[in-house]
Write a structure and sequence with these properties.
CATH topology of the largest domain in chain A: Rossmann fold
Shape of chain A: globular
CATH class of the largest domain in chain A: Alpha Beta
Oligomer: homodimer
Largest sheet of chain A: 7 strands, mixed
Order of helices and strands of chain A: EEHEHHEHEHHEEEHEHEEH
Helix content of chain A: 40-55%
DNA sequence: TAGATTGTTAATCGATTAACAATC
DNA sequence: TAGATTGTTAATCGATTAACAATC
């Protein structure tokens, strides 16, 4: 008996949708921000390991990354007791643990959909590969016959999507299609059993609970920067 | 009289660096998250304007974007009174106001430094242009003579950085160089008077207070997605 | 006027930080 | 042991949400 909600979009049928953030791990709720920092810790640890450091304290880590030491300790404590009081954290051990927690200790199979300018660049972008993400294949609607694209990655016609995803047991997709195609392609990915999408399309997508989606919105990043420069 | 801090990095000399977030506008502190949402409102309004909508309520906007209506009203109220009680917000007016507030009502001159895979893609990425950002020129250390790069944008040798930035009154930079070069290039950009950097390099940069910097870390986005898929 | 929706204050929720007992 | 640093609880801070008087 509140408002009348003229044309509610599919899925959300509530008057107000509170923002979700974070996911649970064996009961406790882990804030999304913690996960992002976990990746940063893992990266810093990688560098420390390269420098043959044996141990690191929460305050050293915090200085390296610009957080407080309490935050470092608290973040890590979500997942277990990795430190030694009076000593700090063993670098190699902690790094191994973080990689296991993040799931980056094994290679992850990824598909990319939409081989335009941005898609092509991401195919050859070294940053993903370096962190253990393997873009196995790509799809585009403009490709008539399979061809080899940037970085030697095969590009198939979008019609082969379901077949190839199953073939390579791909659980991850990078979405770089047009705004118009985004929802339809996402639906197909989800139906094909994908579990996470990294979405570069500036469109809010309807996805079921169990599919995790992250938005990377380049124009939005620029716009908010723009605000600060006056 | 706490820890001894062996080798403190330049710049930060405090034991713990609390995370900044947000910036002030005539006294009041505006959370960074508000600014991001402002961009989303502006974009939704653009679409509503295209559909010839004359008015929009906070609850319609909230449904479109997945927030609560209270949040929409509160965010907008930071900057003024744009709505009419019992009616809603006039679409065109609100959009104009938001664009003015974000600074996207005028074209913004941008330089891109580091014309590798990612850099090249961003040169031809339509998303920036569409939102009024104009990549005026690019720089790379591997370019001996000026040449025309992707999307017809001139690419100069990095040595011409200072000269060209001044020439075109560029206040914005996109950073897509290597991790090794990042800090040095950032220093030059800052010395040349740039006021904001969109940084794609996965390295924490030391920047003075008055230079705004945003990090876009693609590998990190993937890694945190990876966490949720087990 | 009656109905709807704003702008804003107060209540709630969640995340960050400080502090310190436990412990190596 | 003395010194250092963890893991964790309590205090603080900030952001989101609910509620409602003001107002078109």
């Amino acid at each position: 008996m509140t408002a009348k909600r003229p044309k509610a979009p599919r899925g959300t049928s509530h008057p107000d949708t509170p923002a979700d953030s974070g996911s649970s791990l064996d009961g406790r709720k882990i804030p999304a921000a913690v996960i992002k920092r976990l990746s940063l810790y893992a990266r810093a640890l990688q560098e420390l390991e390269r420098q043959q450091a044996e141990k690191v304290s929460s305050s050293e880590l915090s200085r390296l990354l610009g957080f407080t030491s309490a935050q470092v300790r608290k973040d890590l404590a979500y997942f277990g007791q990795f430190g030694v009081p009076g000593f700090g954290y063993p670098v190699g051990d902690l790094r191994r643990n973080l990689r296991r927690i993040l799931g980056t200790d094994r290679e992850l199979q990824v598909a990319l959909v939409g081989v335009g300018h941005l898609g092509t660049a991401l195919l050859s972008y070294g940053g993903f590969t370096r962190q253990g993400f393997r873009i196995v294949c790509a799809f585009d609607k403009e490709v008539s016959a399979p061809r080899i694209g940037a970085a030697g990655i095969p590009v198939y016609h979008i019609d082969e999507l379901e077949k190839r995803l199953a073939e390579h047991a791909i659980g991850f997709a990078i979405l770089t299609v047009s705004s118009e195609a985004a929802q339809a392609v996402a639906n197909r990915l989800i139906a094909a059993g994908i579990s996470a999408i990294l979405n570069f399309v500036p469109v809010r997508l309807q996805t079921p609970e169990h599919v995790k989606i992250h938005y990377v919105d380049l124009a939005l990043e620029m716009e908010s920067l723009s605000f600060y420069t006056r």
